[in-house]
């Protein structure tokens, strides 16, 4: 049976004048991290990440904006769809989507908070056990096929490696969209696998969650991060495609 590619089951909540900036039990006091791309919040059973509002963009000493996140809203929309798709079509450990919505100019994705520690926290001699399990999960993803390029809902959010040509420098304009791709069908790829996106139970070395599916979708198999990425910290730019 072909995998289902319908939209996520969580509801889309639009902004209204009476809507708070963040839903209970999350508030700015629960913010655990801010980057040039996102803000992250965590409560006991809930994890939320959102795009930055324009007044939160990174600026230089002169006050000029120096970094505008690329496809910030679309990436979170794609992640919501990808998580729902993977949960319905595989047994991979991924967080459940609770809600996705816009609030005061920011797009928010609320998911289940998952247990475990980042793969980067393990001893080096423990990691091969985890990577062996991860390889099986990647193989499972590759059994999901489609003749349509992009995410489950049709959004095409190319990973940084594809947009940069593998050298870390992002392309701009029409060249961002891949124009020479192998023949169909495409396979489902996570496209951002690295140590910080893999949670593990340190007592059993079992993977408890695979996170950050913003760039996921159907692409040629070679677009998936090479095995060298799995032991890196952060994005897999600067590596040659394999």
Strands, count: 14
Distance between the termini: 30 Å
How many domain units? Answer: 2
Order of strands, widest sheet: 1-7-8-4-3-2
Tell me which oligomeric state these chains represent. single chain
Pick out the low-confidence regions. 6-20, 165-177, 236-242
Q: What is the gyration radius calculated from CA atoms? A: 18 Å
- Give the overall silhouette: globular
N-to-C order of helices and strands: EEEEEEHEEEHEHEEEE
* Strand residue percentage: 15-25%
- Structural class, from helix and strand content? alpha+beta
Instruction: Report the average pLDDT across residues.
Output: 81
Number of helices: 3
Helix content: 10-25%
Largest sheet features = 6 strands, mixed
Protein name: Kinase-like domain-containing protein
Keywords: Kinase, Transferase
Organism: Dichotomopilus funicola
GO molecular function: kinase activity
